[in-house]
From TrEMBL:
This is Ferredoxin. Pfam families: DUF3470 (PF11953), Fer4 (PF00037). Coiled coil: none annotated. Transmembrane segments: none annotated. NCBIfam families: FdxA_Protbact. Residues 1-30, 31-60 form the 4Fe-4S ferredoxin-type domain. InterPro entries: 4Fe4S_Fe-S-bd (IPR017896), 4Fe4S_Fe_S_CS (IPR017900), 7Fe_ferredoxin (IPR000813), Fd_C (IPR022569), FdxA (IPR054829), RnfB_subfamily (IPR050294). The keyword NADP does not apply.
Length: 111
């Protein structure tokens, strides 16, 4: 089992999860984070840290496409190891459904 970042992260990009990850398996895009499935040690400490419940185990219903997306983007996005501020309009996006069309495949800008 591994954990996966899902749609809830798009356009919010809270990084509370990054701060607690013992193996630094998070990767940052312009408006979303992903987890590298080959690096995740399945400890689960990140899941309760996400304020929008965007992190789920890969055994949760409906997450298979997100697991594929996480694996793909983790190969091209930079690793993130420190907490940063969420996106400026995160509160407006939190809890919204149907955000996949808003996903940017661009990597995060260097911090």
């Amino acid at each position: 089992m591994t954990y996966v970042v899902t749609e809830g992260c798009i356009a919010c990009k809270y990084t509370d999860c990054v701060e607690v990850c013992p193996v630094d398996c998070f990767y940052a895009g312009e408006n979303m984070l992903v987890i590298h499935p080959d690096e995740c040690i399945d400890c689960g400490v990140c899941e309760p840290e996400c304020p929008v419940d965007a992190i789920l185990p890969d055994t949760a219903p409906g997450v298979a496409p997100w697991l594929t997306l996480n694996a793909e983007l983790a190969e091209v996005w930079p690793n993130i190891r420190e907490r940063i501020a969420p996106l400026p309009d995160h509160e407006a996006w939190a809890g919204q459904q149907g955000k996949l069309a808003s996903l940017s495949r661009n990597p995060a800008a260097p911090q």
